[in-house]
Structures are given as structure tokens and as C-alpha cells.
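C-alpha cells please, single chain.
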Amino acid sequence: NPDHVEAHLPAVAAATEALAAAAQARVAALEDAWRPLRNALAGWLPAARAAVAGEAAVASIKAAELWLKAADGALQAERFAPIAARAQATWSALRQESSVDLTGISLAGAGNRRHLDLSLAVDGAEAPLSVMSQGEINALALSLFIPRLVHQDSPFHFLVVDDPVQSMDPFKVDGLAQVLHDAAQTRQVIVFTHDTRLPEAVRRMQLPATVLAVGRRARSAVDVRVERAPEWQALDDAWAVACSGEQVGPAGLQRVVPGLCREAVEVTLRASVRRQLLGRGDRLEDVEARLSGIKLQTLAALAIYGDEKRGGDVYAWLGQKGHGLVETFQELKEGVHTGAADKGLVERSRVLVRRFAEVLK
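Here you go.
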């Protein structure tokens, strides 16, 4: 009906326009919401297509990465092998009579979690680090430290060690002296220690070394002097006392000078006995026990003949080695209590010590 259409057409037209406007608003809202995602997808799509295209190469890249890691590990192990071998050799020298064996040293971990793996054994059975004494741990630390410093690629041409003898058993000190001597073949080695066992071991083993004694006088004045062998130092001290007779008096001379001269002779004889007995394989503690409390003439017999019971032959031996040696030896044997206590005794003692040192090498 034309009248019906004419009457309702404006309302339909208005509703249609409203619907169109609402649809356009909805489309605009959706466009605003999805446009960032569309742009992101448009930017990502080329890379995704390239990734899909290159997916076939991923397996090869991963295989190459694994190969590089394995090759890097092999190269590290190859570079570390000489250090590990020297560390084990150093431990073998330092361990002496320790039952702990260092069976393996290896690098482990990756990135910032790399660490050193140590394998220990006691009497053939695997053991943890906690079985080691403090002295053994110190020796192990030196075993790991020194090989790195003396490695040919190390930029350092010196080695400084502070008090390495701490907590070490006496028989380990000999091993330490030998290890430091070996390191000194290619490096300057400087050792600070308050323990006299190390310089004593160096002298007994006849290893070349310069021993400096550092003292502090009044007002913290530091005095550095080359320390002589103990026998010669004792004689120097005896000479200094003998030259100060007016200050110390006859009684002081009698108490000090003969004792220092006798000490010089005893030190020389003890050093000879240690070299001989240790050289044939005796244990250090057995040697020290054998020397404990030994008398001068018995000590001389042990140094000369290797037999404490031949004390009666000492004078005959001295008589063959030089004029006046018998008298000087007897003077020192008895002069601690009676007899001369002057510079002449010191000079005669020097001759006796020098003769013992020359013959009993």
C-alpha cells in the first residue's frame, strides 16, 4: 500500500541510518583493538616464514654447537693435563709418608659454575677431602698452586710463599724443600717463614739457597742479614762473647763460649748423621729419635763410623785427620765445665768444625 509505505518509510530510513552508524562504530572499535596485533603479526610474519624456511638447518647448528663444546672441553683438558700431572707429582713429593693418594684432578662444570674435581684414595679406597689433616691440606694446596705458577704459559717469573711449613709434619718439610728447589730452576722462589725446619732441611739436603734473617731492633728498625749455617753462626756468637770478656766476666765466658763451640761441633756432626741415615732410607723420626740425648763422643762415632759403640776409636780418627784436633775435641767435651773459654778456643773449634765438614760430607 503506497500510503503505508509513505507513512512508515521515514522511520525505517532513520532506523537504517542508526544501524549503519552503530555498525560503523563497532567496526572502528574492532579496528582500534586489532590494529596493534595486526601490525605485530605483520612484522613477525617475515621472520616466522624465514624460520620455517631455515628449520632444516637447526639440527646441523645444534650438532655444530655440541661439537664446539666438546672440542673446547677437550682443548681445556689437553691444556690442563700438564698442570694436573705436575700437581700429582708435587703431591707425591710433599705427601712423604701420608697414606692419602691424589688419584685424579679434572676440570668440571660450565660457565660460572666451573670447578676442580679432586679424587683421593686412602690405601686404595676412595676417600673424601675430610680425611686429610691440616698439614696435608696445606701440602695439597701447594701441590695445586705451584704447578700453575711454573707452567710455561704463566706470565709470572717468581713464586712467593708465606709460611708453607705451617702444620706440616717434619718429614713433609724435606719434600717441600725439594719441590721449591725444583721450582727455582725456572722461577725466583721467595719463602717467608718463622719455622727453622725449612732452612735446616735445605742445608741438610745441600740445596742452594740464600737464607736471610730479618730482625727488628728498637723503634722498629729492621735489620736484614745473610744467615750463616748454624754451626758457623754459633762460632761467630762465641767469638763475639769472647771479645767481650771485660763486660761478661770470667764466669760469663766459662758459661757461654765453650757451650757455643761445642754446639757448633754437635750441629756439624748431627747434619752429617742425618744425611747419611736419611740417604740410606731411614725415616726422619727414627733418625731424630736416634740423635735425641746422644753424647758428643757417641755422636762423633755415629757420624764417622755409623756405629755409636765405636766412641773409643774417635780420638784415633781425629789424630789421623789433623794436628791438635784430638786436644780440641777433648777440650770441648770437658771444657763446658772446666778449661779454656777464650778466643783461642773459638779458633781451634773453627778448625775442628771445618775438618769435620770436609771429611764427613
